[in-house]
């Protein structure tokens, strides 16, 4: 079991960091009192190995409890757990600017000058920073760049390809999926619904698949969409996108869209991506109008 203790200056990006860690499979808790870290470790042992990577945000919001950090980490090590400290930093002027833009009070400013709170916090965190395994200065980093840096350090497979892709078939008669990032309409393809022996079957069955793919336009479409995915997905990953929903629709979501979604799924799976297939409307109106 691996623990990452996320700490650092208020306003330096700990919230974005914990979200990034969550995207790459860490179980994350924000603002956990340090004294509870050993207790939490004991609880995770009861998950039968389902939780292996944990990220905890610990900072001066914990007040006097923050002073227990090193004591708790020593206990954690004594229990046989390894941990790393990720420290988020930024320059004073950048932190002041961020606080002014957010119109929030610094937790140590006591309604006084923001810079005084920042300087006091630096003093309190100096020992933690000295013992940090990784220090990231976010002064000139965008959220995307911060995510890329965290993925570089903590992605277990050493890559930044942590995007989860859902390929979904659907029927336009039941509405476009609200979470779709990309929507493709295959209603231009010949419809198996109007072939009597195919009407009751779905795109998961070989006769329907063979019918859909016997048309030149079907094969041209799947070739073009594969090429488009090969271009788009690496760029989505580069920009830090963690989830992508590709929706392919026909009239009822039972025949043509199912065949095409399955082919896109297999292509992306063969490319090594993490892919989920979903046929949202395949069971709707097995016999009905306008499939």
TrEMBL record:
<feature type="binding site">
    <location>
        <begin position="8"/>
        <end position="15"/>
    </location>
    <ligand>
        <name>ATP</name>
    </ligand>
</feature>
<keyword id="KW-0342">GTP-binding</keyword>
<dbReference type="Pfam" id="PF22740">
    <property type="entry name" value="PapZ_C"/>
</dbReference>
<feature type="domain" description="RapZ C-terminal">
    <location>
        <begin position="164"/>
        <end position="282"/>
    </location>
</feature>
<keyword id="KW-0547">Nucleotide-binding</keyword>
<keyword id="KW-0067">ATP-binding</keyword>
<dbReference type="InterPro" id="IPR027417">
    <property type="entry name" value="P-loop_NTPase"/>
</dbReference>
<dbReference type="Pfam" id="PF03668">
    <property type="entry name" value="RapZ-like_N"/>
</dbReference>
<dbReference type="InterPro" id="IPR005337">
    <property type="entry name" value="RapZ-like"/>
</dbReference>
<dbReference type="InterPro" id="IPR053930">
    <property type="entry name" value="RapZ-like_N"/>
</dbReference>
<protein>
    <submittedName>
        <fullName>GlmZ(SRNA)-inactivating NTPase</fullName>
    </submittedName>
</protein>
<dbReference type="InterPro" id="IPR053931">
    <property type="entry name" value="RapZ_C"/>
</dbReference>
<dbReference type="GO" id="GO:0005525">
    <property type="term" value="F:GTP binding"/>
</dbReference>
<feature type="binding site">
    <location>
        <begin position="59"/>
        <end position="62"/>
    </location>
    <ligand>
        <name>GTP</name>
    </ligand>
</feature>
<feature type="domain" description="RapZ-like N-terminal">
    <location>
        <begin position="1"/>
        <end position="157"/>
    </location>
</feature>
<dbReference type="GO" id="GO:0005524">
    <property type="term" value="F:ATP binding"/>
</dbReference>
């Amino acid at each position: 079991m691996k623990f990452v203790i996320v700490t650092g200056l208020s306003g330096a990006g700990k919230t974005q960091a914990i979200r990034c860690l969550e995207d790459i499979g860490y179980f994350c808790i924000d603002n956990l009192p340090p004294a509870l870290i050993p207790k939490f470790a004991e609880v995770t042992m009861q998950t039968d190995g389902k939780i292996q990577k944990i990220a905890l945000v610990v900072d001066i919001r914990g007040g006097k409890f923050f002073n227990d950090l090193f004591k708790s980490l020593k206990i954690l090590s004594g229990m046989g757990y390894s941990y790393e400290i990720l420290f988020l930093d930024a320059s004073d002027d950048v932190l002041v600017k961020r606080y002014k833009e957010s119109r929030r009070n610094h937790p140590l400013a006591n309604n006084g000058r923001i810079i005084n709170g920042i300087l006091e916090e630096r003093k309190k965190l100096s020992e933690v920073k000295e013992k940090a395994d990784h220090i990231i200065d976010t002064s000139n980093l965008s959220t995307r760049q911060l995510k890329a840096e965290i993925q570089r350090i903590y992605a277990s497979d050493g890559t930044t390809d942590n995007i989860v892709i859902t390929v979904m078939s659907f029927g336009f008669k039941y509405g476009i999926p609200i979470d779709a990032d990309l929507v493709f309409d295959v209603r231009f393809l010949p419809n198996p619904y109007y072939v009597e022996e195919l009407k009751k079957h779905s795109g998961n069955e070989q006769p329907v698949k063979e019918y859909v793919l016997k048309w030149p336009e079907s094969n041209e479409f799947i070739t073009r969409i594969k090429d488009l995915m090969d271009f788009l997905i690496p760029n989505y990953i580069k920009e830090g996108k963690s989830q992508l929903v590709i929706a392919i629709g026909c009239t009822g979501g039972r025949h043509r869209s199912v065949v095409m979604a399955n082919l896109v799924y297999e292509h992306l799976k063969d490319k090594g991506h993490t892919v989920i297939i979903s046929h949202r409307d395949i069971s709707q109106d097995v016999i009905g109008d306008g499939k």
